[in-house]
Amino acid sequence: MKQLNKLATAMIPNNGGELVLLQREDEFSIKLSGARGVLMNSRVYNSEQELAKLGCAHIKNKECAEVLVGGLGMGYTLATALECVTASSRVTVAELIPQVVEWNQGPLGECAGNPLADERSHVRLGDIADLIKQQKPDFDAILLDVDNGPEGMTNSDNNWLYSTAGLQALYNSLRPEGMLAVWSAGPDSMFITQLKKAGFKVTDKMVRARPGKGSRHTIFLAKKP
Q1: What is the C-alpha separation between 181 and 204, in angstroms, rounded?
Q2: From the CB of residue 14, how many other CB atoms can be counted at a distance below 10 Å?
Q3: Among candidates 62, 25, 52, 53, which has minimal Cα distance to 41?
Q4: What phi-psi label fits residue 143: left (phi over 0), alpha (psi between -120 and 50 degrees) or beta?
Q5: Which in 79, 106, 134, 189 has the greatest CB count within 10 A?
Q6: Element (H, E) at 21
Q7: What's CA 133's distance to the chain center, in Å?
Q8: 10 Å Cβ neighbour count for 21?
Q9: pTM above 0.90?
Q10: 165 CB contacts (<8 Å, ≥6 apart)?
Q11: Which helix (H) or strand (E) holds 164?
Q12: Which residues 6+ apart lie within 8 Å of 114 measured at CB?
């Protein structure tokens, strides 16, 4: 098997560490420098797709729906969200690291079908928290895949999103019957309790990293009444 080659690096703001983009033939990986394992891989993306499918299921026939994706990653969540909404809808993706957007505009973008080229997709460079803190009911769905789940790993500032104040701001950013979907590496009963306290009606789903196999991840589904 050929070795992974380093293509590029990017610093995570606020001393969050360094991201490394790697490639082996048509396979891409993004890892956190100095940490074991990879954050994401272009051959393992089923749970990211499920995040979008579950989070957007209620708006598949809604005209002019507005979706917010937290974290571009390798583009699979964005690509699937675009598949799930109507032609008149818009999907905004908030990405903290400019280089991640650049990687997705290059060869990496081909893995997910170049979703940034879709005229319905819009990139907002910066912290998704800055959008959420406005607390305007602008979105029918918010899909969060900014870290390893309710406990931030790559960026401690992500912890605010999962705090009492952050969850309330997310609630207030959704339109009535809007859905917040949160990707997590595993289950978290305390997070479910926090979501309920914020006013959400909550369920969670176990999904696999690959269709029918691979690691088990959790999608929290929090609906605004």
Answers
A1: 9
A2: 11
A3: 25
A4: beta
A5: 79
A6: strand 17-24
A7: 18
A8: 22
A9: yes
A10: none
A11: helix 164-173
A12: 75
Distance of CA 225 to the CA centre of its chain: 23
Which two three-digit tokens encode residue 107?
Answer: 């060869």
Burial of 102 (0-12, 13-18, 19+ CB in 10 A): middle
Nearest-angstrom CA–CA distance, 54 and 49: 9
Tokens of 63: 């005209």
Residues listed for the chain: 225
Q: Which two tokens stand for residue 59?
A: 């708006």
In the structure encoding, which two tokens stand for residue 82, read together?
Answer: 């675009």
List per-residue pLDDT tens for the chain, 225 residues long.
678 899 999 999 888 889 999 999 999 999 998 876 788 999 999 999 999 999 999 999 999 999 999 999 999 999 999 999 999 999 999 999 999 999 999 999 999 999 999 999 999 999 999 999 999 999 999 999 886 667 644 444 568 899 999 999 999 999 999 999 999 989 999 999 999 999 999 999 999 999 999 899 999 999 999
Quick one: tokens of 162?
């999962």
Q: Which residues contact 45 (CB under 8 A, 6 or more apart)?
A: 74, 76, 112
DSSP 159-202: GGGGSHHHHHHHHHHEEEEEEEEEEESS--HHHHHHHHHTT-EE
Among residues 173, 169, 167, 176, the alpha carbon closest in space to that of 196 is found at 167
Report CA-CA distances (Å) from 190 to 88, 150, 179. Answer: 37, 10, 19
| Pair 150, 166: CB distance under 8 Å | no
